[in-house]
Design a protein that fits this description.
CATH class: Alpha Beta
Oligomer: single chain
Shape: globular
Largest sheet: 8 strands, parallel
Mean pLDDT: 96
Number of domains: 1
Radius of gyration: 19 Å
Strand order of the largest sheet: 3-4-5-6-7-8-9-10
Number of helices: 11
CATH topology: TIM Barrel
Distance between the termini: 38 Å
Low-confidence stretches: 1-5
């Protein structure tokens, strides 16, 4: 990373590389908006972009990145671009083609970070058959299902390590893993995971997991750092579960003359994690980035952490059955 991110805190990885602690999450940004949102975000000062094959907007993300790069808004080495390997590409022969598809769509020569999206191996769906492949093996089947494939995580990881050796990705990591899966991976990996990305917010503080990562030199990125916001329209959260409307968060925000969202993001950054909130709104893009010029007290940090109730909104064990006709738990 260059020095283009003025005043932004960084997460230092085991390699010494630094990740801007606030990134833009691209999940659920509509294709027709994505290119402009990415360009706007770069103009606002964003340098960290969190993408994935499964989000279905990497082509448009690439258009936004290329527009910003071509007009000189930013240099490629000043950007941190993350993407993710989808579940259908876990067999070793499918990992590199999946990465190359993301590189082509994003219009870049390398990724800063490539993550295994879920500890779930699904039956392969060729890129030319359907892309992104999503959860169903065959959505046109009479009774479409999520179909598992018998691929050990270490097989996928060895293929991820080859991407590093080939210079196609700088760092590799995982999403949605718990401590036991991380331990097993660390015991076998030649290139240890640089980053874990998991759901994390004051209702799901994941204290043991974050401590384990800290002690294992694994960086942590929190997705859904504002909690329920991304899940209302998916009917995966109840209206009363909004952290932005919680009295404690609103009180702390008023004391600091900040928005509730800024308090939640500051809490994540101050814990030493990266956060990747999603927004398409220019005002909120700026607001979400402006969390580096105030500090929460230790009492405020503790009181926010005290909201924890282990409430996970993004759980395949919950959403796969109603949405994809398949019971598919990965968390205890």
């Amino acid at each position: 990373m260059g020095d283009a991110v003025i005043g932004q805190e960084m997460i230092q990885l085991a390699s010494g590389r630094e990740v801007p602690s606030v990134g833009l999450g691209l999940w659920k940004i509509e294709q027709e908006s994505t290119a402009q949102v990415v360009e706007n975000a770069i103009d606002c000062g964003y340098r960290h972009f969190d993408s994935a094959c499964d989000y279905g907007n990497e082509v448009q993300t690439g258009e936004g990145l290329t527009a910003a790069l071509s007009k000189g808004s930013v240099n490629r080495e000043d950007l941190w671009i993350t993407s993710k390997l989808w579940n259908t590409y876990h067999r070793k022969e499918h990992v590199r083609p999946a990465l190359e598809k993301s590189l082509k769509d994003l219009q870049v020569d390398y990724l800063d970070l490539y993550l295994v999206h879920f500890p779930i191996a699904q039956k392969h769906v060729p890129i030319e058959t359907r892309y992104p492949p999503g959860w169903f093996t065959d959505p046109d089947a009479e009774h479409p299902l999520v179909e598992a494939d018998r691929v050990p995580i270490i097989e996928t990881w060895r293929a991820m390590e080859e991407l590093v050796n080939a210079g196609l990705v700088k760092e590799i990591g995982v999403c949605n893993f718990g401590c036991s899966l991380l331990r097993d991976l660390l015991n076998q990996a030649d290139v240890p995971p640089a980053m874990l990305q998991v759901e994390m917010h004051p209702y799901l503080t994941q204290e043991k997991l974050t401590r384990f990562c800290r002690e294992s030199n694994i960086g942590v990125t929190a997705f859904s750092p504002l909690g329920a916001q991304s899940y209302f329209q998916l009917n995966m959260a109840e209206a009363h579960e909004s952290l932005l409307a919680h009295d404690l968060i609103k009180t702390i925000a008023a004391q600091h003359q900040r928005s509730p969202a800024q308090v939640l993001l500051r809490w994540g950054v101050q814990r030493g994690t990266a956060v990747v909130p999603k927004t398409c709104n220019m005002e909120r893009l700026r607001e979400n980035l402006a969390v580096h010029d105030f500090t929460l007290s230790s009492a405020e940090m503790s009181s926010i952490a005290g909201l924890n109730r282990n409430r996970r909104f993004n759980d395949p064990g919950d959403f796969c059955e109603p949405a994809f006709n398949t019971f598919f738990p990965i968390y205890e």
